[in-house]
Please model this.
Amino acid sequence: MHAYRTHSCADLNATHVGQTARLSGWVHRVRDHGGVLFIDLRDHYGVTQVLCDPDSPVFAEVEKVRSEWCIRIDGEVKARDESLVNTKIPTGEIEVYIRDLEVLGAASELPLMVFGEQEYPEETRLAYRYLDLRREKMQRNMTMRSDVVSSIRRRMWDIGFREYQTPIITASSPEGARDFLVPSRLHPGKFYALPQAPQQFKQLLMVSGFDKYFQIAPCFRDEDPRADRSPTDFYQLDMEMSFVTQQDVFDTIQPVLRGVFEEFGGGRKVDQDWAQISYKDAALWYGTDKPDLRNPIKMQVVSEHFAGSGFAIFAKLLEQEGTEVRAIPAPTGGSRAFCDRMDKFARAEGLPGMGYIFWRDGENGLEGAGPLAKNIGPERTEAIREQLGLGAGDAAFFLGGKPAAFERVAGKARVHIGDELGLTETDRFAFAWIVDFPIYEQDEESGKIDFEHNPFSMPQGGMEALEGDPLSVLGYQYDLACNGYELVSGAIRNHKPEIMFKAFEIAGYDESEVRKRFGGMVNAFQYGAPPHGGCAAGIDRIVMLLADEMNIREVMLFPMNQRAEDLMMDAPSEPTSDQLMELGLRVIPLDD
Model:
């Protein structure tokens, strides 16, 4: 017999009745039923009920075990009484009568319980992550994560990609976040960096002629934490292809991701046709470049109905250059109580309020109600209703000003309205490609032009596009949004040195600076670089959506806390004086 087990805790069933089995696992819970001790024994695969009564030669030892002790038992497989069969677990037809017991690892008093669904502070869960990971939900999430990664790899190989590993210790490269720097012992005063992404290396692979690359790549960014973002490291499906257009990339990655969501989505609907929405339209319609399309609400510009109207606030606002008024339709939201709740929501977001109109049946047909309707009159109110396609029992909310100042709140209000009114589908994965990102932005105060998005994207129109207004230049850059999250980001790359130099020159970087910062890639592009493009999909966010979790730390094995600390391993920690001396470094304390 094997030293620890003949079966897992999910294997035994009615066909094993009468056999002797050896099981090893953790004591999930202990129940004393009138002198008969029942133990739910758990391992990674499942749970088996084992029992012991005073006739067992090890009854006294079994009485001592407690929750989360790791034990081995030998015993006889017995059929449960028909009335006691548990159909919820694979081993529910049997139980094992304990004949022998070995304690493999006793457990001290537990800082958190594994059995049950009790909630514990995140700091406790992360400090004792090895216990937290024993919980059923966490075992399920991490198993799903492993299976998702395996599925992605298989699907990528099946469509002709090969996986290549790129360096972890490399040079600093701006990817939109802070680098983690690594001091060099052999080159005092110089630093390596952990890669924010394999961006430059995967492009160099295309120059090297490999044509189709992918990698489940670790990425390192010193970022401020958010619920959907790790503050230190994360994994992504990184891919790149040569001789492709933007549409080729979409057509390649879309079946892979759609298949993963169909495989692990638990029966939820997965969109088959993925819309392509311009960045400009996404901002207008949804107030964000990662819209949740499960919510059918689309915002619209209604400035013409308020210009010169009796509502002085909007009328005067629209006299200023660059301002507009947008409406957020709210089907079925036509009650004063709901409108008042939304006004309260706006105030909580830092706005003075949010104007509204709701429509109801009147003596002469549909009529608008609310302060705005009274101020602008019935004709303008009716024109707004017709534009928005609303009817009796519906409402609309209004925000005005420069779009950059109110888009974020408008987007949050749209989501809030959809949730409050039950308009958002909860059993669907809704995807959309966001395209036509602007390459440049202008600082309002200084007037300086800088990159708004990825500086390595090919501008639409090539060199000719860079000769005109920089703020009108769009890139072959794209994101994939799903249920309000950005899942994928990518681009067709700028592979021509002369276009790259010009693109950086507009943002204030001369050729020497570009060569200094990106010398390896720029040099490579002088030797026959092919057109190429690709994308990266966030593994952690994909699993977070599939597991129906709101926090990315629920699908990562050993995440940092909100302050980028590993409470379990006590990181970051202070280096020893010997380590600092070896690296030629000195730590200067910061004033509090």
